[in-house]
Each structure stands twice: as C-alpha cells, then as structure tokens.
Amino acid sequence: MAAKKPEPKGYVGRSLKRVEDPRLIQGIATYVDDIVLPGMLHMVVLRSPYAHAKINGIKTDAAKKLAGVVGVFTGADVNAQCGLVPCAALAPNQKAPKHTCLASERVYFVGHPVAVVVAVDRYVARDALDLIEVEYDPLSAVTDPQAALAPDSPLTHPDLGTNLAFTWTLATGDMDKAFAEADRVIKHRMVHQRLIPMAIEPRGCVASWHAGEQSLTLWTSTQIPHLVRTLLPGMIGVPENKMRIVAPEVGGGFGSKLNLYAEEALASHLAQRLGAPVKWIESRRENASATIHGRDQIGEYEVAVKKDGTLLAVRSRTIADIGAYNQLLTPAIPTLTGSMLPGCYKLKALRMDIQGVYTNKMATDAYRGAGRPEATYTIERLMDLVAAELGIDRVKIRQKNFPKPTEFPFNTAAGLTYDSGNYQLALKKAQELAQWNKLLKQQAKARKEGRLFGIGLSTYVEICALGPSKMMSAGGWEWGCVRIEMSGKVTVITGATPHGQGQETSFAQLAADRLGVPIEDIVVMRGDTAVAHYGRDTYGSRATVIGGTAILMCIDKILAKAKKLAAHLLKAKEKDVQFKDGKFFAKGKPKNALTLAQLAAESYVAKNIPKNFEPGLEASSFFEPPNCTYPFGTHIVAVEIDRDTGEVKIVKYVAVDDCGPQINPLLVEGQVQGGIAHSLGQCLFERCVYDENGQLLTGEFMDYAMPRAKDIPDYVMGCTITPSPSNPMGIKGCGEAGTIGATPAIANAVCDALAPLGVHHLDLPFTPEKVWRAIAHAKGGAQ
Amino acid sequence: MKTLVSIKVNGTLRAHEVEPRTLLTHFLRDHCRLTGTHIGCETTLCGACTVLMDGKAVKSCTVLAVQADGAEVTTIEGVAKDGKLHPVQEGFWECHGLQCGYCTPGMIMAGIELLKRNPKPTREEICHGIEGNLCRCTGYSHIIDAVQYAAKKMAKAK
Fold it and tell me: Complex ipTM, two decimals?
C-alpha cells in the first residue's frame, strides 16, 4: 500500500465530514412531502392499466360527488392549459408524438396519466380514483423494439405511421479500408437491459399560486430547478420571472429527476386554477411505471483487428427502445453511447448506426451514466472477446491500444477530444492493488479444483462536466455568486443543484481556502431559483467541476475588489497590497492588516470608500467550460460462481479511479462506491420487464431486485491523479465513474469464470437462474 | 368513523382522532408532524419508514396507527438526547454513511435496534441486520462502517 499522504494545509484535499449531515441524520431536513401549506390540497393521478388502448369515455361524476373531492380533471379539462411535455434533444427529422400531460384519445403505456383527482386529503383522493370509470378499447401493444421495425408490426403511435422515431449515424475514418486491412473480424450481439432508476424518494411536488402577484412557487423533487424554470413557462403560460422553483432536499435522482414531468405542470396549473396549494406525491408503483427508465439498447457489433491485437475499427448497429414518448433528453442517450464507443482506445474508423424505436413503454432517458455505461460495457466486453479470439493477454491488448500519456489531448475516432489521461498508470495501479499475479494463481488453483473462478477487468473513460454550451441545448455553463456579508460571514450560492453529492461541504472547502476564512463561516445555498438566480443544475458529473469553478471566479472578483478598498484604507498603492490567510496588508507591513470581515463592513457602511467604488462585496460569475472532462480508471473484479445454484459471488473488488485532484476524498469514495452498487445491480439482478402485452412486471421493490447490504463486496479503492486542462482546479468529476467502470469489469469476471465451460458471453443480468442454465447447458444437461 | 389513537411518541403522549385505516407512518408524519420518518414504497420493502415500536424495529408504512395504540414509538427525531447525537447517528456522520439522506432515518433506526440485540456485530451480521433497508446512493459500505463505528463507541462508553 502507498505511504500515508501528508495532511493538506488547507481544507481542500481533506476528507471532511459533511456540513449537510446533521439535519439529515436527525430527521429534521425538509423533503417535498414534508411541506405543508395552509389550505393545501392533494392531487393523485389515475393511470392507464393498458399499454395501448383507445379511450371511449371517462365517467367522473361519482368521484366528483365524494365528500372531500375538490375536482376531477381529464385531458379535455387541462391539456390545453398545461401544454406539451418538452424534449430538448429531438434528433433532426425525428417524428415525435404530441406529449400532452394527460392522455386524450388513447393511452400509450402502462402508467400513462389519464385523469387527476384533487381532494382535501390523500386518502380521500385515492378513494376517488376508484370511482372514476374509464372505458378502454385495448389495442395491440408494441413491446419488442426489433419486431417493431417489421413492416407489418402494430404501431405504438398509429398517427405517426411508423415505430421508427429516428436514425442517427456517426461515421468517421475509412471503414472499408480498415476492414480490408483486418486479419480478423469479431462479431457480437449484446443486449443492454432496461433498468429502473428507483430513487428511494419517489417524485413529488407542491405548487402554490400567489394570486396577488400572479406568481407561482413550485417545490419539486428535481435535479434541475433552473431548467424547470426555463421550460415550465412554455407549458403553463406563467412567465419565467413570475416563477420560483425550489428543489428542497431531494431523496436521490440518478438522472430520473433530470426531467420535467407532466405532473409538475398539472399541479402548477391546478394550484392556479383552484386558488389553493396542490401537493402531488408519487407512489412507488407510479415511480416504477411513470418515471423514466434507463439503458435498453440492443447492439450488433463488429471489431476489425490485426492479429497482433491492434484495433482498427468498430462498427455497430443499435436499436434503442425509447418507449412511448420523448422525455427531456430521451434521444440523446443512445447517441452519447455512440460518442463514447471507442472507450480508451485508438481506432482508425468508427461507425454507429442507431435506430430509435417507439414502443408502448415508459420513456427511457438519462439514468446513472446515461449512455456511457452502454458504451463502456460494449467496448470492454469486446476487448475481452477479441483477446480470447486472438489468444492475446487481455491486459496487453488494452495496453497496446491505449493512447500514450503524451498523446493527450487525444482526438478520438468519435470526434471528441479527451483532455488528459494516463490509462497505463491507472491499470498498473489497479493490478498492484489487486495483486494480479497472485489472483491469477488463485484462479489456476480454483480451476484445478473444478471451481468457477473468474477475473474481470475494465479500463474505462467517461465524458463528464457536461459541457461546453455548444454541446448543450440550453447552455452548459454554471453560475455562482459569493457574498461577503457585512459581518464577514460568507454566503456561497451555486446554480448547480446538489442533492446528496455533498457540495455544501466541498464548495465550502474551496471557498474557505481561497478566502482564507474558517469553513464554519461559510454557508452554501442551492436549489432555489429565488436565491440561485441562474443555474444549469446537476447531471453528467458536472456540478463540482463547472459549479465549483464559477465559485472560484466569484471569489477572485471579490478579492480584486477588496484589494482596491484595502489599498485605499491602508493608504498604499494597490499593486503593493498583498493578501494572505484572509488578510490584506501593504507589502512588508503584515502587522497592519485588514481582515476580509473588516473590509466587508467598510464596503457596506460605505463611508470611507475610494472614488467610483461600488459599495458591497459580492460577485457573480458564469463559468463556460472550454471542453468536457474525461475521467478514467481501471476496475478489477474476481468472482466465484456456485456451480449448483448459479449464484455469483464477488470475492474481490478493486477500483482505481482518476477524477483529477480530489477536493474531498471521502465524498469521492462515496460517489464511486454508490456508482458501483448501481452496476452491481445491473450485473446481478436488475431488469425492467414488460410482458408481451406491455404490462410492467417489475413495478415494485418486490419484483425489481436492487442490491442490499449483503450483496456488497469489500472494496479496495485507489486513485491516480491526472489533472484536467479544462478547468483551473484540474478536477474531472466522479458521480458516474463507478457505474461506468464497474459493469464491464463484473461482466468480464463472470464470463471469465464460465469460459472453461465454453460459455463466452451471457447478457446481463447474471441471475442465478440464467447462470445455472448456462452451466447446465454447457454440461449438456437440463436447460 | 374516526377512532382515538394514543401513542407515546419519543416520550410524549400523542392522541389523535384518526380513521382506522390510517397508517402509523401517516400518524407520525401528518398528525404528529414528525416528518423524519420517510415513505419510500408503502409495501414494507425499503425500510425508509422504520421506527421502533415497543423497542422493536417496524416498518411504519404497514402498521396501522390503531395497532400501535398504547405503544411506545421512537422515531428518528427522538434518538438524540439532550442535544447529543446517538452513536449510530454519529457513525453515519463520521463515516459518510449517507448521501441524499432519504433512507437514513430508517437505516439509523434499524442500526440502533441491531446494536441492541447484538452489541458487537461482524460486518456480515450488520449486513443481515440492515437487509430490510434499501439505499440507492451509498452502496452500503459506508453504512456498514457507520454501524461498526457506533458499536465500538457504545462498547467504550460501557
């Protein structure tokens, strides 16, 4: 193990415990369902039990008559006023259905909102749902995205005339030449199963209309209050400057709350219409059926290689099941897969053809990793398959195709520019931590004893800190504001909207060091558009990189201003004023110093300020990143499979991640471990299942198996530090690294364990039944 | 038809007229305004609503308030004493055992009950003890550390 590093001098780099925790561990934090307003009403949603049906009629009289019911609303009552649910990422020429908030003539997926009840309490509201009668005429559902492309397939949206939503092609290099030069072409098909994000807090919101001001406040469990404020006006017609969006404490998002949903517009409109606050809280079953899903791609892949293991080209044809509607970023997820398909490797040519297909299911969209896990899983599985086919060591084939550290910034075959990297070093470090050679010996011994022991590795790279505004439909900058209060206390306001990632702590660490003040004097505010006026929020592992840089830019402006005031008060020339440990002094006179607090007081009292000096000590900044960041690393996994039960047990897990310099290593560790758990779920249990009629079979925690504590291995965590040139701190982001790096590592380990039986690939998840069947089949036994 | 339910919550007797179908979790959240107990599934599977009822950890989303009539209930709000955190709370803070914090109150209550039954649990026993509680953020490792931290701290205090 490496020698213990010396403790850093300031706050940055230290594993400080979080300032946000005391309220959370005492149960005194405020999540959206904890908000109670005078006269507040409760909204519940009636949802379609059918995947595809025509609505012949809706009878609401009995529900309306129930004591305590304030109103029952169908599409005919509210759709005109609530606008269309937005998508910010439609592909060029994409055919898209009109996404009204409530169904009108038809329903298109199980969980499709059909009507809402508003009542004085949630029990009464749910009673009323049972009294609504909807006459459905069930229609054929489209559930298989491949079959959906057949000319005689039923249609998800008959009015579109096709199930093909869009096609997207990325093609670079001379593909024909690369394939002509190849000694071997390895072909493979992989399925990236549909997953359900399942944040433990379901979605929910409270809308309050202020009749006097004609303005709206919406508290909503979202990752993106600022994007909601940008988009909701277009739905309900309340102007942006009359709209305050608050993300209170948010109980997990993982991409599922990176969206604007119909229910947020419905509650907002009804609060205005009924003149009373309206609360809506999603149930778990609703969360599983009507909050976005993730992944769901089927790919056919071809790799062209030289016999020495040099990669030449990758070609893929992918079908992306996007569900019935386009949510905020739906079409952009499979295309991000395309952009990251080269992984850590040099390629001469790349081609990815994606067909986005409508099916009668919930929309897919950004879920932890958002297209990148599919890319990494694909290329890293392919690397193992190629290595096996050519009889080349899987470590050596990776090393052979990595760009050298001196080749960065590195232009990939997909047209991206990786900022910095040292893939060799991360791989080497992971091998050391895993005791690679010992592990190989352990495997040889296990195999001799007839045990199924596998070792897997993945060398991954991801795209983070999204992104330069040219890549993002609504801008990719981040905003911040820092104010030195009159008392000298510091208020830091970020437009990023952390919801569990810990930036109330890490941003305070950054600010305390740069300002030279104790961390206790700093408060970080976020998540309220009335406080954080602008922001692009939290997704794509961007908040610390882009939001943190914006904070530092504010502080630099403040320090420059404070220096002017200090020069005036110290009767010194500005160029002679120095700043150290939170104090300003004239060169050579450190004893005659002014603290930041003293300068703040002077700046607000404003009795003795320089000519043309604006009072106050506050600055705001937008940081526009010049490029994305590209964190990377190596994960190594060892598994043992029980031959009798098919159960996979992870016996070793080593993660080496390079997210650049770390502001708070404890928080980085938490992010990576949490990310790995999502992968572990995808690898071992998780699968969103619709039956052939489009019924969701995994609509509860009972049926959708997520990892529990007993499923988690002991981790060996390590890091390398390769700074990014894309921001002054050199940091890269770490929120999705675990999910992106882990899935292929676990999958490669399981396939390695099964290799002696002649099983070279299984699609995820590796449920005991699937693994057991593969073992039995290989032995020529029961299937 | 409403019925009077009296529950000693965190040492204080709370009596409210509620419908017989009222869940304990709603009694605590809506009637007592103790909102630290969270609801994640309403089907006993996630454990976010875990409270102690007569010393035993229960999922309050599938206990009716009338079933808890006359019982003593401890919620997350009643765990710290005299402004001092319970060692399990402290462990969660020290070990970064939480991120979004939504599952945390339930996890802490499950951890407290586990340590009552088994003051020196192994990592495996901790995993088993919190098996009824789901966390989607942390990946559990730091939660296990947190419970171990508390066990050590409580053993020292004895």
Answer: 0.98
